[in-house]
Design brief:
This protein has an eight-stranded antiparallel sheet, with no helix packed on it. Strands 2, 3, 5, 10, 11, 12, 14 and 15 form an eight-stranded antiparallel sheet that branches. A hairpin with a 3-residue loop joins β6 and β7. It has no helices and 16 strands. By secondary structure, it is mainly beta. The radius of gyration is 15 Å and the shape is globular.
Length: 206
Amino acid sequence: MKRYAIAIMLFILSLCSTAQVTNRALNFERNGRVSLGTPQNNITDTGITLQLWINPQHWIPGANVVTWGNNLSIQLGNTGQLVVKSTEESITFTDSNLVSGNWAHLTLLLEENNIRLFINNTNEQSGTLTAPFTVSTEEPLLLGGGFLGCIDEVRVWDFILPADYNRFWNNTIDRFNPQWQHLAGYWKFDQARLESNVYDYSENGH
């Protein structure tokens, strides 16, 4: 598997002046999309955790934040809402931090029929699917698609991340992290020069 994921057209690596730390992030134009490859390291249908920071420059309902085949998508809903879709089902989550020009951290836990979402590690919300969530082993994990703004610190864990250490929501992490072995993919987007590739810091080679 390639060590780098292929970036798909029309995105810019930039410094986001309103980032949660002095940091680089992916800055999406509206038609920009980025492929992170297909995380497969130890991933099963027993449960995964997806984490990322988002900062929409403009709130565009229906814009895709994350897409993983037909199995999972995270979209902007109305202002203050995120819509999580799995196959033909969707669940809407609401939080006051979900507005344009504001950084918000998402922790999404997917375990069989259950979906839980934390915004900035608070305001836990949950929903239930009629059919269990299944992991896509063939489709790439995509960022963007109608989204205008910044995305940073994307992590895919191969299990349901416990609440220990506040789920590392407000920190970058390294191989000394106690749950490092459970990282299926980790993209910091911290390269000084990105051009057409993004680096997977989990060392799983996506």
